[in-house]
Specification:
The structure holds two protein chains of two kinds. Chain A is an all-alpha fold. Chain A has helices at residues 10-20, 26-53, 59-79, 83-90, 92-95, 98-112, 117-124, 130-150. In chain A, helix 2 (26-53) crosses helix 3, helix 3 (59-79) packs across helix 6 and helix 6 packs antiparallel against helix 7. In chain B, the strands form two sheets. In chain B, strands 1, 2, 3, 4, 5, 6, 7, 9, 10, 11, 12, 14 and 15 form a 13-stranded mixed β-sheet that branches. A two-stranded parallel ribbon of chain B has the order 8-13. In chain B, helix 2 (51-70) crosses helix 3 (90-99) and helix 6 (204-223) runs parallel beside helix 7 (239-252). Classes of the chains: A mainly alpha, B alpha/beta.
Chain lengths: 152, 340
């Protein structure tokens, strides 16, 4: 008995798929990202201001202090199991600032601890943050070479 | 003649499903089917030191509960057909280590429960086994850390993403009725791999729907039956997007499903709104626990007389995804009838 090949055209299926798949709520997503990201940046600014005005630090040192505080808070919240919920809510708002990078380092550390300190934690620490380091540092080297050539 | 048409097999001895067990995690226990499961384990580590060991414990508990209900000992089982989502299916293998039963390890991704029931049914019907144990499990934490991101990573899930169910289901298939038989396996249809070029690993339902359509149409055409001949068509974990697409595809292929007699385990296991589950549940444990926890008992009572159970799987790997490959899907179908 000859069974007909089931009739599903791939291009048509792609159209059906797009219609059936709900899109992310862009408006809501953007709003959440902006307000949470904004608060995080304000917090960083506040720490830097305290550094300069109260602790008598230089501006660069105060910015470093701000980074340290934000990284610490992120690590703490990640360890407490709270940060992932914040990330699900805020999306880019937590991912784009330094908090995203910190979370990307701490979460694999927590996760792969179970496979041992060397081959687990040690090896997998940079699974998510790795590309940021590779391409960020790579780009800065390239920029440095270009500036050197241009005599900037 | 055992073969019907191109792909369907008639299990003329109609093997008996004598027991089923479902053990699930906290979120599944809090869902609409919470009361159906044999046990809800709140601790995601299940008292173990790693998530993998926890999933193994779920697996063993499901097997133990199933055998207890049927009053059958491991030494009387001829085959353990089991699978899970972990690399090298370690859960299934390690459970076989504990049980000492000849082991057939299966990988069908989320279609494993149906795959194991098809093969278990065939082994019993063919006289190759008196008892086979068909088991499948998944665990949210083990799946996340293997396929996606570390658990504490703050990424956003897309609306089409599904949540891997933490749960295990075990079914005992035998050649004779036990003390409390539940159902009988009448026919099985093992599926072909179908790939329509869907690449988005966050939209597995869409990747699997074509395979589901392919297998369903094969079964209907081979047996000259239609959706109206079954009290229920139950898919494994197509989720919201996948089920919508399946319904459309079936209309296009001349076998319109009755929406009142169609449901999907991934849609049933969670309250998608209240539990923020996006497109629904997924994982081997989804169809395994919902079938064993809710639908086998309904067949046992006779509330449902004939159920077409079809679990679907997305046969990708993290490597294939990263290399830009599309996601092949597969679906296996089992026709279950009440034992009465």
């Amino acid at each position: 008995m000859n069974r007909q090949k089931v009739n599903i055209d791939p291009t048509r299926y792609q159209t059906m798929l797009e219609q059936a798949s709900p899109n992310s709520k862009l408006g809501q997503g953007l709003l959440r990202a902006f307000w949470v990201g904004g608060v995080i940046c304000m917090l960083g600014q506040a720490v830097a201001d305290v550094g300069v005005r109260v602790l008598d630090m230089t501006a660069p040192a105060a910015s470093t202090l701000a980074s340290i505080v934000l990284v610490f808070l992120t690590a703490l919240l990640t360890g407490l199991g709270v940060f992932d919920k914040l990330g699900q809510y805020a999306g880019g708002g937590t991912f784009v600032p330094i908090t995203g990078f910190a979370n990307a380092m701490v979460s694999p550390a927590l996760e792969f601890r179970r496979e041992g300190l060397v081959l687990g934690l040690g090896a997998k620490l940079f699974t998510i943050a790795g590309p940021v380091l590779v391409y960020g540092i790579g780009a800065s080297v390239l920029a440095g070479v270009v500036f050197l050539i241009l005599g900037v | 003649m055992k073969r019907r048409g191109k792909q369907t097999l008639e299990l003329s001895n109609r093997p008996w499903i004598n027991a089923g067990a479902a053990i699930v995690g906290k979120k599944e226990g809090e869902g609409p089917l919470g009361a159906c499961f044999d046990r809800v384990v709140d601790d995601e580590l299940n008292g173990q030191s790693t998530f993998e060991k926890a999933e193994l414990q779920f697996y063993m508990d499901a097997i133990g509960t199933c055998l207890e209900k049927a009053a059958v000992k491991p030494e009387n089982i001829q085959f353990l057909l089991g699978g899970d989502l972990l690399n090298q299916i370690i859960c299934a293998s390690f459970s076989a280590r504990a049980l000492g039963v000849p082991f057939i390890g299966l990988y069908g991704a989320c279609s494993t429960m149906a795959e194991s029931l098809c093969l278990g049914g065939m082994l019993v019907d063919g006289g190759y086994a008196g008892h086979t144990l068909c088991v499948a499990s998944s665990h949210f934490c083990t799946a996340e850390r293997q396929y996606r991101f570390p658990l504490e990573f703050g990424s956003q899930r897309t609306p089409t993403a599904q949540w891997t169910v933490t749960g295990a289901g075990a079914t005992l298939v035998s050649d004779q009725p036990g003390r409390q038989p539940m159902a009988r396996i009448a026919r099985v249809c093992m599926g072909r791999v179908v790939d329509l070029g869907v690449k988005d690993a966050n939209n597995m339902g869409a990747a699997m729907a074509p395979a589901a359509c392919d297998t369903l149409c094969a079964l209907f055409d081979d047996t000259q039956t239609g959706p109206g001949d079954y009290d229920l068509v139950l898919t494994g974990d197509l989720g919201q997007v996948g089920s919508e697409l399946l319904l459309e595809l079936m209309v296009q292929n001349g076998h319109k499903l009755d929406e009142r007699r169609y449901t999907d385990c991934g849609l049933e296991i969670f309250d998608r709104e209240a539990q923020d589950m996006h497109a629904g549940g997924s994982g081997c444990g989804c169809s395994a626990s919902v079938l064993n926890g809710r639908y086998l008992p309904l067949l046992q009572k006779g509330d449902l007389r004939r159920v077409l159970f079809m679990a679907t799987g997305a046969l990708l790997s993290p490597t294939s995804s990263m290399q830009g490959e599309s996601i092949p899907g597969i679906a296996h179908a089992v026709v279950l009838e009440t034992w009465r």
